[in-house]
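User: Please predict the structure of the protein below. I'd like the answer in structure-token form so I can feed it into my own downstream comparison script.

Assistant: Understood. Taking the following sequence of 191 residues as input:
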Amino acid sequence: MRGFPDKCVIDTNVLVVADLFSNSEKNNEISKCCIEACYKVIRHVMENGGLVIDENGEIFKEYRDQYKKSHLDKGQPGPASEFIKWVMKWQWQWQPNQVTRVKIHRLNDTYKEFPEHDELEKDFDFDNSDRKFVAVANAYPGTHKPPIFQATDVKWWGWKEPLCDVGIKVRFLCPDYVKEKYPKKKSKPKT
């Protein structure tokens, strides 16, 4: 895949959308281009490595829970299941060129490694399941923080600028979908 980073963080919704690759008749809303982009990202990582997850296993657990859910919902494993099995392989778990594990520290409802930025702090939609991906990208020890691949979670569109301010790039695999849905999400009152 052209322009693919050496290291990356992959949000679980990328796996969910990639699973539509083999079962697109279940989808009415997400474009074929978006589904293919998600599929290509997970295929690239499986073939070349570069996944960044947390040492504590929170991202791994979320992937595994999605794996269990996809088996229960469909009965037939799809591309996401194949990716999750790849992540679960013992030989990849401890090879930094395949899977890099980064230490993050839970701090109440967030993480010590979650970046400080006014726009991120006042956004109450930033739940823990999203925060761990940001904390992992921010805690990465290399000279460049790995980008976070994002599919259809529209909340991330509002976070892209503040995250960029702290050196974390969000790569949207379904930008047309997110751009269209974000204004509607933003205009809904928070409960």
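That's the full token string. The longest strand covers residues 51-54.
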